[in-house]
C-alpha cells in the first residue's frame, strides 16, 4: 500500500531519514532502517574533517528545534567507510549526503562517495549555519546551484538529489535551474532561518553559535509551500522534508506533490519508531478515505 519508487529505486514506504539525524555511522543508519525507514540519508559528508560549531548545537524550543551543528564531519575516508558499512547492511536504500565549500570540491566528494555505491547522492547546497565560513549557500543563487548540480552529476554513477533551501524569495527558479542542470530529484527543504532563541534569564542567545537553522513542527507550512511551488515548476520527483511528525503531515506533503517524505526532528519528538508510526498513520488515513495507493492523492492540492 505504501510502496513507492524514486528515480527507479524501490522504497517499501515513503519515509526517508533526513540528513543530519542519526546518520553519522553505518550502524546507526542500519538501526533506523530496521525501525522502518523507507530510505536513510547519511549526515552530510565533506572532504576534510570538521569540528563544527561549539556546544550547545541543538536545542528544543516551543515549536521545533534550533541547530547550529555547523556541518561537523569526520572527513571523507571515515565518511566513506561508514557509508560502505551502511550500504552493505541496511535493509533500505542508503542516500549519501555530501557538502563542500566550492563547486570543484563538490565534484571530488561525489566521486569519492560513489565508491561506496550508495543508492543515490544528495547534494546539500543549503546549510544556513556556515555562511561566515562558506559564504551564501549555493541554493540561494540559481547559477551556483546549477553549477554544483552539473559537477555532482558528472562525478556520480547514481541518481542525484539536490537539497534546496527555503530561505529564498523564489524557490521555483532554483528548482528549474537544478532540473535543467541534470538533477534527478529535489529534496525540499533544509532548515529555515537562521533563527535565534534568547534565554530571558541570562539575556543571551541559547546556542553557542547564537543563530541556527529551525526545524520541526514550526517549519512545516513553509516546507509544504516550497514543495507545492516546486511541484508546479519541475517534473523531477520531490522528497518533501520539514516538520513531518505524524502521518497526517506526510499526507499533506504528498498532497502538495511529494513522492517521499523526509523525517528528521520527529525522531527527537516521537522516538526511533517514528517511521513505523508515521506509516501506520498514513495507512489509517488511506483506509478511512478509501485510497489504495499513494498516487491516488499525490499532488491533489493542485487540482
Ligand atoms: C541536528 C540537525 C542536523 C542536521 N544536519 C544536516 C546535514 O548535515 N545535512 C543536511 O542536508 N541537512 C541537515 N539537517 C536538516 C534536516 O535534514 C532537515 O532538512 C530539516 O531538519 C527539516 O526537517 P525536519 O523538520 O524533519 O527536521 C539537520 C537538521 C538537524 C535538526
Describe this structure in words.
Strand 12 and strand 13 form a beta hairpin. This protein has 10 helices and 16 strands. The longest helix is centred in the last third of the chain and has 16 residues. It is globular and about 50 Å long. The protein has an 8-stranded parallel barrel with strand order 3-4-7-8-9-10-15-16, surrounded by 8 helices. The chain is an alpha/beta fold. The model has no long low-confidence stretch (mean pLDDT 96). Helix 8 crosses helix 10. The chain has one domain: TIM Barrel (Alpha-Beta Barrel). Bound molecules: flavin mononucleotide. The site of flavin mononucleotide has 28 residues, from strand 6 and strand 16.
Descriptive keywords:
303 residues; 20% strand; binds flavin mononucleotide; TIM Barrel; alpha/beta
